[in-house]
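Take the subject:
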Amino acid sequence: MEQQRNLIQRVAVGDIIARTARRYPDREAVMESRGGRDIQLSYRELDRQVSRLARAMRGLGLQKGDRVVTICGNSVEFVVTIYGLARGGFVWVPVNPGLSPEDAAYIIRHAEARVVVVDDLFYPVLKDVLSEIKEIRNFIYLPVGGRSVPQPFTEFSSFIKDWPEDPVEDVEIWDRDLCQIMYTSGTTAAPKGVMISHLSIFVGSLNNAIEMDIGSNTVLSCLMPLFHCAQHTFATAVLHLGGRVVVMRGFEAMRLLDTIQREKITWLFALPGMYRAMLDHPGNGSYELSSLQTCVYAMTPMDRRTLEQAIERFGNRFMLATGQTECYPSTNSFKPEWQLLKEGNYWGVSAPAVDTAVMDDEGNLLPPGEVGEIVWRGPVVMEGYLKDPESTEAARKYGWHHSGDLGYFDRDGLLVFVDRNKDMIKTGGENVPSIKVERVILADTRVEACAVVGLSHPRWIEAVTALVVPRQGVKLQEDDIISYCKSKLGGFEVPKKVVFLEDLPRTTTGKIQKHVLRDKFRNLYNS
């Protein structure tokens, strides 16, 4: 009876492509321009390749629940791999290619992976530790850069070509079965393996479709890395509804502008710095961008100058989306109609499938205006951290998922982000949100990028410290920034020191790695 109910009530990510293929078999699902040619798959073709991949993995002896690591950039083959693993009931473990070989090896071992899939452009991440990963017997190679296949790898197309393309329907998948284990980017701590169910991804992607105007006519620029949860969930939402996914590999302003014009992109997800780069490109004005209907930004705030200019150039269609790997994004959105009306780091309203609240340290939900930890609950919340029951229990204390972020609701019921709990600077008995100081410094047109951290100080406990990247060709002195901050901030909020850098350490999704900066400059005031 239980088995029959599972079949009737089945929720499985691998079914998404099959259902859309039955509705729109000849519609283009995914395309990529690579090496002077376009690679295109209809929904029927994508569905067949997904089935082949699932069957080929099974041919290696994999069973439902076995883990498969990928170290890949965006490509059509990667799209096939992602949804093929879901269809076979395997657990996808994406590894950020920007990690060191040692970190990649750690994740492979920690996840107890059986197979590794790598594309040729990121093969160097793995090759130096191949001899150390004795647990892996099977390696699949995506030659997206046209490079030859090394030993002991099997080339992707030959791996899947001889397997049947008919639907894979004999794998029993429960909605809370694991579909993915995504490792956190580690901006504030060592990465953890976040266990994500089929239900979380299924509901989360439809959640985004409802909230962010994704439909059957959507043309998505798949620019951000698919190994990250945000781009993955947006792509899944589009594939749910029969839209078109235009795969891009890496960012370059002119290429993105050209792609928007050529492919008539309607839905764009990019980092604030990418919008800034497009605005600054000398050929920006010559591109026809009227196809754009939704422009989403995330990961980091957009300064008001860039936002105003972006709205003028691209139209009043900007949305901020927020969330985290542990609560499959997005959880909140800040809509176009509010973008220039509300001052502050607004996260907006909850997504339809998510409850958002603000909680104090004793588990009490706080009224509007009071700052506390942002907490969520709903079907998109993770199953827990892999092999880490203590962190799992801490994250779900009092029956809510704890984000580690501080915020409050304004009088209109909109969520305002104050700071990461760990990034709140406690200086001289006062709390200073690092993001407040950053917002002021970023408003200075002479500044390209900025991070504000608290560093150990013999008098102030923590000293507000600004790490600043000047705009190209601009020479700045420490007093330039401090004087500017004094005109905008309270005295205790003004940086005690300003350090100028050529660049800031970031994850591949653009998040500034403040823990790297804190470690590098930890003795700044003690030397």
